[in-house]
Design goal:
Elements (H helix, E strand, L loop, with lengths): L1 H17 L3 H5 L2 E3 L11 E4 H7 L9 H11 L6 E7 L2 E6 L1 H15 L17 E5 L11 H19 L3 E6 L6 H13 L2 H6 L1 H15 L3 H15 L3 H24 L6 E2 L6 H13 L3 E3 L5 E4 L9 E5 L7 H16 L3 E7 L3 H13 L8 E6 L2 E2 L2 E2 L2 E2 L3 H18 L9 H18 L7 E2 L2 H4 L7 H17 L16 H11 L1 H11 L3 H20 L7 H14 L19
Helix pairs in contact: 5-19, 7-9, 7-10, 12-13, 13-14, 15-16, 16-18, 18-21, 18-22, 19-21, 20-21
The chain binds arginine.
Arginine binds next to strand 11.
């Protein structure tokens, strides 16, 4: 890793002066973010972080003075050409030719794995992660919360895979419960076998809406209850109807997720844990954790003082299980099946309490691995409407973004040069949707706007895709020179240096996102990369420059695309995780 070799070299000099092992210093040396005010230093060491690592009596001393003193004790060498002190930092400038050469060679060599092989990850053990996301409820709305869960979960899974971890993607479908009682009855009156086959999600939703209205009638309600009871009793015919609803729905989900580039290893929903939930209740009882209330419901006491001031209800008075009971069963079953190191649930923040209770009960049951479960929550999105109205199906959102994007493309006449405008509109539109969602902290709520998301300028997914496509065509048009034939000394203009400096930071950014699972670090990195590329594109033209200069410009384009095999607009962004 390019940044790594520089960090190592700086750390080894520092280690002699500070008498600390270089490994302890590496994480305190970070690449300086590129700012509008051009800077010359490439790396900086934060004095506070080394003082913390060393003796405590240094703490009282003035940081600026410390930085100055330390800078004076360091010497320039073949890697570092300048050392200076800033407020609380020591700044290092890398030899300019070496910077260009090392970064470009590394990008060329690692391709799409650039940044991933950094030693920042060397102390992170390879893990097996179960990631549960999307998890819509059959026959109900696929709301914006499910869309967010889908793209955030997919981001986390992609990031983990890119960093070498093993990932199991699970869709915990809402495929059990009274809604199937209603659907079973509703289908007899309002169902159509043809419609069920051709568009199961939409048809089941329509039947569900209709039967819900009809169920104001007590007789219908009773019929639905009977149907669901038969389902719980495993009546064969009833089960086969349920299975058909479920199977056809999953088939359609798979098709739609594919448009988003999302897939699952398992569709194991709530139905699967219906019976296992009864075993969980038995276990809770055996462990003395299940308490009966006067109403006959079963609760687990989660209060510190054990005075029932905080409880979680795990059993209805008729002995049947609840949402949380099935989640308990699912967690235990997944541990038995996958022996995971970490399990992540992705839902909106309204379920935070639920997951907190879930992890607490698992802990009380003696499962220490409950500490390795994590709920990644996100905020609410307001105002996402399609032209037809409220969002009900994921497909509505995908079609809407595609048609709006296509319209924008037609009005700016960009469709002419594009081979498959509809496909392009879909890919670019999806990028716009994802980037709008990933720009802020996941926990923030935000107001959705199609116009803002689909702008071609500014910090949008459209701008990212546009930059990517532009660089890709530059690469296609100007050949594929080997980097060894390139005279890197040419690459010394301030705009080129800014790009190289930015590339130095990529592993740190990946590391940050991998730690807090927030996509915004990678997204803002890519947006800055695109801005820098746009500037460089103007000031360092490939076309019309002398061949040796042009080659370097072209290699720079390769850099931005993630190496020699950088994709086209159809393949998404340069980053392995965000697509
Ligand atoms: N189906 C649920 C819903 O739509 C989300 C499931 C979340 N995952 C879980 N293990 N409880 O609200």
């Amino acid at each position: 890793m390019a940044a790594g070799s520089f960090r190592r070299s700086i750390a080894s000099q520092l280690s002699k002066v500070l008498d600390l092992p270089p490994e302890n210093l590496i994480k305190s040396i970070s690449a300086v973010p590129v700012s509008k005010k051009r800077h010359v230093a490439d790396f900086q060491l934060s004095i506070a972080s080394v003082i913390e690592n060393s003796s405590s009596d240094c703490l009282a001393q003035d940081l600026q003075l410390q930085a100055q003193q330390l800078a004076e004790r360091l010497k320039c060498d073949s890697v570092v050409s300048e050392i200076s002190a800033g407020p609380g930092t020591v700044n290092f400038t890398i030899n300019r030719e070496l910077l260009a050469k090392t970064v470009l060679q590394q990008v060329w060599k690692d391709g799409s794995e650039y940044g991933v092989k950094s030693e920042l990850f060397s102390t992170v053990p390879r893990q097996k992660a179960v990631i549960e996301f999307s998890s819509p409820n059959i026959a109900k709305k696929f709301h914006i919360g499910h869309l967010r869960s889908t793209i955030v979960g997919n981001f986390i899974a992609n990031l983990k895979v890119a960093l070498g971890h093993e990932v199991v993607r699970i869709n915990y479908l809402g495929d059990w419960g009274m809604q199937f009682g209603l659907l079973g009855v509703g289908f007899q009156s309002f169902g159509s076998k043809e419609k069920l086959k051709s568009s199961p999600l939409q048809h089941l939703f329509e039947v569900y809406v209709q039967i819900n209205k009809a169920a104001e009638d007590e007789n219908i309600k009773k019929l639905a209850k009977d149907f669901f009871r038969k389902l719980e009793d495993h009546d064969e015919q009833t089960l086969s109807i349920w299975k058909q609803f479920r199977d056809l729905s999953i088939e359609e989900y798979i098709r739609i997720y594919k448009r988003l580039g999302v897939h699952f290893d398992e569709y194991s929903g709530e139905s699967f844990y219906q019976e296992k939930a009864q075993e969980v209740l038995k276990m809770l009882e055996d462990k003395g954790l299940l308490q009966k209330t006067i109403k006959g419901t079963g609760v687990v006491d989660l209060s510190e003082k054990k005075d029932l001031s905080t409880v979680s209800t795990v059993m209805r008075s008729d002995g049947t299980s609840l949402y949380i009971t099935r989640d308990l069963a699912a967690a235990i079953d997944r541990m038995n099946k996958h022996s995971w190191d970490t399990m992540i649930y992705v839902t909106d923040k309204s379920q935070s309490n639920h997951f907190q209770h879930l992890f607490q009960i698992l802990k009380l049951m003696g499962y220490d691995w409950a500490e390795r479960c994590q709920h990644v929550s996100f905020g609410l999105v307001q105002g996402m409407k399609t032209r037809r109205g409220e969002v009900i199906f994921l497909e509505d959102v995908l079609n809407e973004v595609r048609s709006r994007m296509l319209q924008n493309m037609t009005s700016t006449k960009t469709t002419k040069e594009i081979q498959d405008p509809v496909e392009t509109a879909e890919k670019v539109g999806l990028a716009a949707l994802i980037i709008q969602d990933f720009r802020g902290l996941l926990s923030s709520d935000y107001q959705f706007s199609w116009d803002r998301a689909l702008q071609s300028r500014g910090d949008t997914g459209v701008f990212l895709q546009y930059t990517h496509a532009r660089l890709h065509s530059l690469e296609q048009m100007h050949g594929n020179a080997e980097l060894t034939d390139v005279n890197v000394a040419c690459l010394q203009e301030p705009d080129a240096i800014s790009l190289l400096q930015h590339l130095l930071r990529y592993d740190e950014v990946l590391y940050r996102s991998s730690q807090d699972l927030q996509p915004k670090h990678i997204v803002s990195y890519l947006l800055t990369l695109s801005h820098l590329a746009a500037v460089a594109h103007k000031t360092l033209p490939v076309k019309g420059s002398a061949p040796d200069v042009a080659q370097v410009g072209h290699s720079g384009a390769g850099v931005l695309e993630g190496g020699p095999e950088g994709g086209s607009i159809h393949q998404g962004f340069a980053s392995p995780a965000v697509s």
